[in-house]
Each structure stands twice: as C-alpha cells, then as structure tokens.
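User: Here's a chain of 646 residues. Predict its fold as tokens.
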Amino acid sequence: MTAAGRGFDISEEPLHRDPQGHPCSTRYGDIYASRAGAFEQAHAVFLAGCGLASAPRAWAGRGQFVILETGFGLGTNFMATLQAWRHDPERPQRLHYVAIELHPLAAHSLIDACADPALDGIARELAAAWPVPRRGLHTLHFDGGRVSLTLALGDAAAMLAQLSLGADAIFLDGFAPSRNPAMWSPEVMKGVARLARPGARLGTYTVARPVRDALAAAGFEVEMAPGFGGKRERLQAVFAPRWPTRRAPPRAAWAQSAPRHAVVLGAGLAGAACARAMANRGWRVDVLDARTVAAGASGLPAGLAHQRPSLDDNHLSRLTRHGLQWLKRALATLEGGWIGGGVFVAAPREPARPRCWPAAMARTASATEVTAQTGIPVQLGGHWTDGGVVAVAALVRQWLDHPSISLRSDARVQTVRRTTDGSEWEALGADGHRLAHAPIMIVATALDAARLLPRAADCAPLRPQFGQGFLVPASAMGPLETLRHGIMDACYALPLPAAACAALELAPTARWLFVGATYEGTGEAPMTPAMAWDYVRHGLGELVGTLPVDIPSNARLFSAVRAVTSDRLPLVGAWPDWNASQRRGARALDLAPCEGLHVCTGLGSRGLVLAALAAEIIACAIEGEPAPLERDLLSALAPGRFTHRR
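Assistant: Prediction complete.
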C-alpha cells in the first residue's frame, strides 16, 4: 500500500456537536450515531444484527471471535462489545476487534463523547492506550491480552485490501451513504466479503438499495429487520456465496481436536519470542538449541531498539515502528532490563525530520539538545527517535520462563522432516534419534535454517555477517563516561541496563557501556580485536570526539555472526511447499505452505526490534487470528519472496 508508506496524513478529527448537543462531523455533515442513543444503537443494530445481543450469543464457547468494523467513529460499538464480552460467562477465550477509520478522534474526545456513563471506564482505558495517528495498523490490548483492538487508520477500500483476517461478525458502520458514499461502494463491500468467514453475520443501520445490491453481489444473503431510533428498518446479512470464491476462505483457528503442541528450534531472540507467543496462546512448546539460551548474536550484553526514520517511510521504517511497539509490550514486565526515553541517531547530511514522521516518533534534535539529553558532549545533530536500550539476554530468558515452555540445550538437530503419517514434524539428531515432534515446528536457528529447511539454500539464501563489540567501563571512555541514553552514528554506544549488569556479575556501583559494532563482509578474515576497536572508535569519533586509541585493559570483547538476507529483511511465516504445483504469477503470500512448518530467521542486526513482531506474525497465522501487519509488509517478509521475484 503506497499510501501507508508515504505520509502520515492521518490527522485527529476535532469533536463537534450539533445544536442539540449530539457529536457530529462537519467534514461529512452528519451525526456519529442515532440521536436515540449511540450505546442503544450499538446493541440494537450491530450486536443484535450479528447475534451478539442476547444469550446464547454467537460467540458462545468459541476459542476466538473476530469482529470487523468499517467505521470506528466514537468507539461506542467497540466499547459496547467489550462490555458484553466482560459480562458473558460463555464469552470466547480471545476477542479480536478490527476497526477501520480514516479520521480518528483525539484520545480526550473519546472520553468527552462517551455515549453512556456505564462505558466511561472503558472509554478511559481506550483513551489511555490511544496511538499516535498514522496510516496503518495499531494493535491495542485489554484484559491481559485476551481482547485486542486493531485500528486500521486509512481509507476503507485501501485498508480492507491490506488486512489479513477471517471475520465472524461485521459491523458495517460509517456516516450515511448519501454523506459518505465511498464508505458504502461496491468495492468496499467486495473487500468486506473477502475477509468474511463462511456464515459470518453482518449488521448495519442503512437500508439503502445500492448497499443492499452491493452486499448481495458480494455474496451476502440480506434481510430486513426492525429498525431503531425512528428508522422503520435496518439490514442484517449472512455471508453465504452461491459460487466458489476465488480466494481460499480465511483460515479458522487451529483445530480444537488437534494437539496444541509446538517445537521451536533455536533459543535466541527469534526462537524465544516465538515460543512465548505460542505459550501465551495456551500451547505446550518444546525449545531445542544446539548450544544454550541466548547464544550467538542474542548473547550480547545489551542492544538498541529504535525506529528507523526515512523520508519515504519505507518497509524498514514501518517494520521497526511496528516492532518497537510489540517489543515494548514485552519489556513492560522486564525489571531493570530497559532504559527508555529514546535513542539519538546522528544525521549530519539530513538534519531535518522526515515530513512523514510525527514529532512523538522522531524529532529533529540539535547537538546542543542531544548533549543535554544524553549527558555527554555531542558534536552532530540528527533525530531523536522512540526507543531505548534493552538487556538482550535477560529478555530472552524472560520469554522462555513460562510453565508451558520446556528447554533442551545442547540438542543439535540434524534433520527436520514430516512424520510418516504426515500429521507432525520431527527433529532428528545426528544419529537419527528423534529429539522432538509436534504438529507445529518453527525453525528459528539463524544461518542453520538454510541447512534444515527444504530447498532453503536455493529459494531463500542466507549469508553470514560477522560483528564485534566491546563491553567497557564508562570511566575509561573519556567523553562517553556520563552517557545516559543510546546513541548511534556509524557505530553505537549505550549504557548497560541493571539487568544486564546483574547477568554479567558486574559491580552494581560501576557504570558500564557497550560500544559496537563492526559489520564484516562475507568471506573476509575477521578483524583482529585491535582493528575492531579502531573501527568502532572511528565510527563514533565524528559524533563524540576522540576516544581511547587502545582497548581499555578491562574491556571484554563480544563477537557473533548475524544471519542476513540479500534485501536485509527477515524470513517470517509459513515455509512454502516447493513441490506443490503453483499457478503462474502467484504472489509470495499465496504460495502453498508446508502445513505446520514455519520459519523465523534472517533478522540480522535488527533481531531485538523485530523478534516480538515476527513471533506474533507466526502465532497469528497458526491460530487464524488477524495478522498484526499490513499485507504488503507481510509480503516483504514472506519466505517465498525470492523465488517469486525470480
């Protein structure tokens, strides 16, 4: 979606009221909800229209339930749905609510416009979680993650094309068709139908003939029902197309009868994040690693997690923005493992903030401002971006610390294959002994994935990139001694979080920094420690001035090999079945998968900021939940993209 990648032209809509005091939009010249009451309309039109207003509700006993709404507006439909879910003893275990909105209100307006005193508490919860407005998806969590609200900010037709989900209920909302015809166009109705599961129910207040015809043409069986608030009739419908659909129907949740058991290969950032994402959904997870927890590149003392601003808001910028939000959710419970407040990225040749980035995400910062913020003298200006410093190994261990996760170290997997009956995947050791087996297997073994996955060397080439960094006492680092936040130029420097110091058994009274890192090419002999130190100090020298020529005597060297792809984006998702017949021109996302086999590798130097997001992508696909990313970004990460390009 080009619009999502170029510009943040999503602005907060001011809240207006008509002469009678009802919230209205001057942009469309219409009220947000019936004058008879927004809360009452939510129940009578949308919840009732989709079988959710009276017991037994349509979601009763379900593992998950997905609702799609085409106009979020005041948020009343969501708040009424959440209230109904909280009060229903037969509610689904997980509720996913996906709402499209082009002109979101400000957070405080959600409280001011709250339709009913009974919803005031929910309105305040919603306002507290409200995101910075920008095009694309924003996922908010409630009730310990059992309820998720995904806001799709943008034009309805464009956002429908970017969503990946299977809707069980559809709230067709928005201003009146005569006021906002684009929201009710045949294109939008087709987009809604593409996302509907068979049997999905739909509710809306309008009975306009063009809307009825467009719904019928898209495969819905439409019927009239008694109206609300002075309207004689309203519409409700069921998705029941009388013809084979061109697309495969949206996948339902993992079969309840199948064992909820997964094997994850790799106990680094990628593997630990995947294991935790599955365990959080009630899966039993076996984790195997050839070495131990947080070995390889995940064993660095700490790392920077931040957004990557760009003038065109490219794929990497959008991915790091999404990734940081998912990472922050995990860091909320990591005691002493996070130094927040932002990261400084020097930009000597591009000091102006990209126009497409809101100031809350990235702002221009002069050398004087950065000096005051970081506590050290800085000689360049650039961007102050959202992010911080993370104790990497502590995060990995926290992800693996779950009663449903079992870890086996020193377990080198020689072969991954499907079992004879085809129901499971198994991991075999060098002697052919079976190490683990399960219906789901996730390969998160960095470079070793190329050896384990079928045809990976040809279809998804990975290459190694060696890197070195140094743990040094702050007192030995001259101008960096009082550094409070992470900084980056050609290299980076960051203060160690308390959890990292504890893991390394460093004196709690001493301050330590981590500086790095080299990017050494494939096929070259690794730099000597002295060469690596020169690389790092020169990479920081323009930003902070002269650093010690020699490696401090009590410094520690850390080195690791990163796994990178040719386009420097990870491989995340279902592994394609290369032997299955493919129609010519099939998109990377539409390649037939090896059912139950997934991959998460190639994260390179961005594993810290992308691991949690990648894990969510895989877990959502397995469970049949709404994807946390737009389809163009999912395609950019799809494991089959290189073959598709050829």
